Amino acid sequence: MKKILIVTILALLYLPVSNAQDDLPIPPRRTRAAKVGGFGGFTPGWLFLDVAPINTVLQAAGGAALKDNGVFMVGGAGSVYIMFIPNLRIGGVGMNGSISSTSVDAFGIRRDAELKAGWGGVTVEYVIPVVERFDIAVGGMLGGGGIDLILRQDAGRVKTWNDEWQFFGSGNYQSGGQISSVTRKLTGSYLVWIPTVQLEYAILGWVALRGGVSYVGMSSPSWKLDDEQDLLGVPSNINGKGFMISAGVLVGTF
Asked: How many distinct structural domains can be found in the chain?
């Protein structure tokens, strides 16, 4: 009888402990399985481009300075996971953006400047699962791109067929002169390399949000004037380099 009483008491003590353990919160599961599938989506960004060297020559020529608080970039990206290396994915990305300025001098001469930056290439990223639905992707892009600097000057007068032929080939591109519309396009082509760190969270099984930081590097420049003639003597500090913050809405398998 004494043994039965002891066993009964121990059983009664065990039941509350067992129920308490069942009520404890379950910690979030960590994703251990290798990633599979792929995705694509819209990836905007903000490039902190150094336009001070361009503004120096632009203002010296009578133009207005470009804004120096960055360039809004738009683009898209996509990737697929390769199965023979777990959590490694390859894909592609393309982005472009532009800023512009306008000035009108005392003679009524209007000067427009537009700076375009863009690139595209192959991405390689390694994904580190942190907790359920949340990953960190470390990698980069290698490709090509660069900047276009488009300069326009216009007298503001009414345009006629005969006048345009009269000024064709005259070379008169000076402030205050009798000029027609003139456009020059200075194109710098570069090898573009972009190391990145991305944070990705899957809000659904097929939709994820992304945010990250990167550095846009450019090297091996080649400059052209009006897409035809080689342009020499371009200062090395005129380029599309800069830090960038980015976001994204991705659709696929996560």
From this structure: 1
